[in-house]
Design brief:
Layout lengths: L2 E4 L9 E4 L12 E10 L2 H7 L10 E2 L3 E9 L11 E5 L11 E5 L3 E3 L6 H5 L2 H14 L11 E5 L4 H12 L3 E6 L4 H6 L4 E4 L7 H7 L3 E6 L6 H6 L1 E9 L12 H18 L3 H12 L1
Parallel strand pairs: 9-10, 9-12, 10-11, 12-13
Antiparallel strand pairs: 1-2, 1-4, 3-5, 3-7, 5-6, 6-8
Helix pairs in contact: 3-4, 3-9
Length: about 290
């Protein structure tokens, strides 16, 4: 089958290739779903993976953290999905990717696609939406009942996580300030942000401008740890900073072989914890339908 793969840790774009002879999955486990992929997305974490994030021993491996498509086969224990369903899915960094003609994905990572979304639009949502939902609902305790009139800074909206976060916060009645680069300004304006703060080399008063604003109940940091301390300064007393940027997994410091063993152990723990992105995706389906 055709697939977009990573064939080394030389980094993008050198390590990325489209191949026609990737082995297709041919056995659907009891709790798996076989999806005929209609659309798939490459996320920032995929680029990190090409540089060695969460190292995997076996090359080539398929990239892509999210996809949409049609169910062609289900395992014997799958209850909420059926053959023919239009679905979308998100997979974690350590799982086989989705940028291929066919993807075999555990049912707990798959949900029915919102009817209003095209395959292409749906394929751009699941992974980043899961990150946003975890940050806002599970870490910050924000929801449709608690967000109204809360002041939130989204830092920044130059990425999928920031764009999705703004739309969810506005739907819940929050007051959203966002930082944005000039290249993303038009998109940010279309999202309905209450206040936009431009950050680029021409805006020398960026920090002072942010500091002059009323303090925030929540600062959502989608940029990285380098901004964590400055984000804390912008919070009111009792406010919260939540970062959505993935840190290198602990397994990376152990090298390729021992790091892979550690990753296998960590994955087993996550399975036993029953982490279920499908629950998050079903929540977004309700919002879109």
């Amino acid at each position: 089958m055709r697939a977009l793969v990573c064939n080394s840790y030389a980094g993008a774009p050198e390590s990325i290739a489209m191949i026609d002879d990737m082995v297709a999955p041919n056995c659907c486990g009891a709790e798996d779903v076989m999806i005929q992929v209609k659309a798939s997305s490459i996320d920032p974490i995929d680029i990190k993976i090409t540089f060695g994030y969460g190292k995997n021993l076996l090359f080539p491996f398929v990239l892509g953290r999210e996809c949409s498509g049609r169910v062609v086969e289900i395992g014997s224990k799958v209850q909420d999905l059926d053959v023919g369903d239009e679905v979308y899915a998100a997979v974690p960094y350590y799982a086989c990717g989705t940028a291929s003609e066919c993807a075999l994905i555990p049912a707990q990572w798959v949900a029915k696609k919102p009817r209003k979304l095209s395959y292409e639009a749906a394929a751009s949502l699941p992974y980043s939406a899961s990150i946003v939902w975890n940050a806002l609902v599970h870490q910050a305790s924000f929801n449709e009942l608690t967000t109204r009139d809360k002041r939130v800074l989204v830092h920044s909206v130059d990425n999928p996580v920031g764009c999705i976060a703004v739309q969810l916060l506005k739907a819940w009645g929050g007051h959203v300030t966002a930082t944005v680069s000039s290249r993303a300004m038009i998109t940010a304006q279309q999202l309905g942000v209450d206040e936009l703060i431009l950050h680029n080399g021409h805006n020398l008063d960026f920090d002072s401008l942010l500091s002059s604003l009323p303090k925030f109940d929540l600062v959502l940091n989608t940029v990285g740890s380098i901004l964590h301390d400055s984000c804390r300064v912008l919070c009111r007393e009792g406010g919260l900073v939540v970062s959505t940027v993935a840190s290198p997994p602990a397994s990376d410091k152990y090298g390729l072989f021992y790091g892979s063993l550690y990753s296998m152990w960590l994955r087993m723990k996550l399975v036993f914890l029953k982490v279920s992105p499908a629950q998050l995706l079903n929540s977004f389906q309700a919002l879109n339908d």
